[in-house]
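Supplementary Methods, section 5.1.

A reviewer requested that the exact input to the structure prediction be made available. We therefore reproduce it here, unchanged from the version used in the analyses.
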Amino acid sequence: MHPMPVMTTRSRTEPLPYHAGPHASTIAVALLLLACSAATDAARDRFAEIFARTLQVRQTMHSIRARFTETTTSSLLQKPFVAHGTVLAAPPSRVLMTYTDPERRIVAIDDQSLTVSWPDRGEREAIDIRQTQKRIDQYFAHASLDALRSMFEIVVEPDAAVRGADRVDLRPKRKPIKAGLERLQLWIDRESLLLVQMQMTFPGGDTKSIRLDEVTLNVPVTDEMFRIR
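The structure derived from this sequence is encoded token-by-token as follows.
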């Protein structure tokens, strides 16, 4: 059983790992929850300003709900693979992603495991992600501003393609990070200071992007809402 959907390659239909496994998925949702929450006791530049202001928002954020569009590109795909759905998340690590198309799929994540369910197939797969979560904590969640700068080349600039947003472009300097991630781009809305879009570029050039729409903060949540029924 493959913890990912089947997609069509150029030559035939076969199970294709398309960076939708635990590493990519947990990075994506962790960034959604963290919303750029690094400490900001360093230089007063645009990067530090964005992170400082975003941290203030995060301190009052108890949950988030949004619609998402997830786009995957790969040299093995004839065209980009696009999926839609909704995401519900609550810090520090509870996430439920419900895919509505092209195939129904539910992804539930906590601090220990990632569970994928395909209701129409009657299949379910659980993956231990504790080591992945530790790496996310090390490289993102618990890193100071200076630590982030030591690990990434960071550029912040407006992006005319995403109205009202600044793009934070992070390129890893260290080999352990480069082995799994070539580039990370985050788009932060200037007014709400929320993450509205992100794109991960993997070694070899494959990409995964997630765009968030209709983002709502602090919706009522219960433990039951994060369980796959």
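The chain has five helices and 13 strands. These observations are discussed further in the main text.
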